[in-house]
Amino acid sequence: MTQKIIESDKSISDLLQTIEPKGIADESMRHTVEVLLNLIEQLELKVKGLELENQRLKDENNRLKVELGQPDIKAKNKKGFENKHSMAYATLRYQNKKEKPQNSTPRAVKIKPLK
To answer: How far apart are CA 89 and CA 43, in angstroms?
Structure first.
């Protein structure tokens, strides 16, 4: 079954109007197609409503951003390690790295054979 690409000027509701379920011979298949067409129309309306609400919320969000502007948040510390506590911690870490033995190699583990 091949599908044609829907042209941008043709809406989905126009496309759905071209489908004729009465031409389907099988009664159960005709009923199924009618139910699915109704469902598609309902979901299309819901999507359009949600798109409108989404755009309204985006517009309101942008309006609020412009009104409020950027918050004035200032850093507690100016740059790097000017805080004495941070500097002491960094120095302690550096000293601990120096104190580790250089030739520490992992010990070999002996595996016992199963009996």
So the answer is: 60
